Amino acid sequence: VHKAVWGGAPVAIKQINRNTAHSVDALLELKAELRILRKLRHPNIVALYGTNATQSTCFRSSHSHHSHNVH
């Protein structure tokens, strides 16, 4: 997990290497998780800001409080 700033707000960037993902099932679970996170809006759930993917890597960005551990 990497810390970054997007649009002036602190974000956490999670990077997943497709080549080292444990299985196809892990990538399918990630896609399912992202579909759910796109729909959720609750003060106790970290907001998903966006996703991106290349042939080798998947990225997701979400709200982050830099004062908290993002791991």
Structure report:
The protein has 71 residues and is α+β, with helices and mostly antiparallel strands. The radius of gyration is 13 Å and the shape is globular. The model has no long low-confidence stretch (mean pLDDT 77). The protein has a 4-stranded antiparallel beta sheet, with helices on one face. The protein has 1 helix and 4 strands.
Write the layout of secondary structure elements.
Blueprint: E1 2-6, E2 9-17, H1 24-39, E3 48-53, E4 57-63
Antiparallel strand pairs: 1-2, 2-4, 3-4
Overall pLDDT level: 77
By helix and strand content, what is the structural category?
alpha+beta
Amount of beta strand: 35-45%
Series of secondary-structure elements, N-terminal to C-terminal: EEHEE
- Number-wise, the strands total 4
Number of helices: 1
* Fraction of residues in H or I helices: 10-25%
What does the overall shape look like?
Answer: globular
Distance between the termini: 6 Å
**How is the main sheet built?**
4 strands, antiparallel
Radius of gyration: 13 Å
Strand ordering within the main sheet: 1-2-4-3
Provide a compact summary of the structure.
Helix content is 23%, strand content 38%. By secondary structure, it is α+β, with helices and mostly antiparallel strands.
Keywords, separated by commas or semicolons:
71 residues; alpha+beta; four-stranded antiparallel beta sheet; 1 helix; 4 strands; 23% helix
